[in-house]
């Protein structure tokens, strides 16, 4: 059953249990659940990462219920890191659980860095109603060439002073998409949005406003 109050639970995953945090929106709730995926586990990424939690907060403030989870081998999630392959199965399992618990709700996918890569790779299969990609690691060790997201609303947020992801490579990749997203480039902003988290919050809230169901 989908929790009515914020809390952490465990669901069955393909490599063992997956640790999941559910945070319902407090006010003006809309029939949407957003799954927010965390950055690279081998670099300390977890569902408690500050960019992930701020993105989830911005969505909840917009009326969207949020689900964060730890990929395999992180926190209380069982299994071992699988270089971006098994993590696709983790997201698939969480999405199936969300859709089973909330058949009334549209599914959104969001992710930061490695989490953006995983959510984008799964987007064609999962067919989310909307996508949010924060600092997608284009041009690094992940293959973005075969990723073709569905023609749903899509927001990409990228810091112009990102020391890990090349902002111009992200912009060039975005421009080649058959259904290009809205690209928000944040000046003087590093990969982890140091001192820019409130700006990130505002960019997400503004970016998703037109996507929200009304009535």
Secondary-structure topology with pairs:
Elements: E1 7-13, E2 16-23, E3 32-37, H1 50-61, E4 65-69, H2 86-101, E5 106-112, H3 114-126, E6 130-134, E7 154-159, H4 167-175, E8 182-186, H5 197-208
Parallel strand pairs: 3-4, 3-5, 5-6, 6-7, 7-8
Antiparallel strand pairs: 1-2, 2-4
Helix pairs in contact: 1-5, 2-3
Please characterize this protein's 3D structure:
With 215 residues, the protein is of the alpha/beta class. It has a single domain (7-209), classed as Alpha/Beta hydrolase fold, catalytic domain (Rossmann fold). The protein has helices at residues 50-61, 86-101, 114-126, 167-175, 197-208, and strands at residues 7-13, 16-23, 32-37, 65-69, 106-112, 130-134, 154-159, 182-186. Helix 1 (50-61) links the parallel strand 3 (32-37) and strand 4. Helix 2 crosses helix 3. The protein starts with 6 loop residues before the first strand and ends in a 7-residue tail after the last helix.
Kindly list the characteristics that best describe this protein.
215 residues, alpha/beta, Rossmann fold, 5 helices, 8 strands, 29% helix
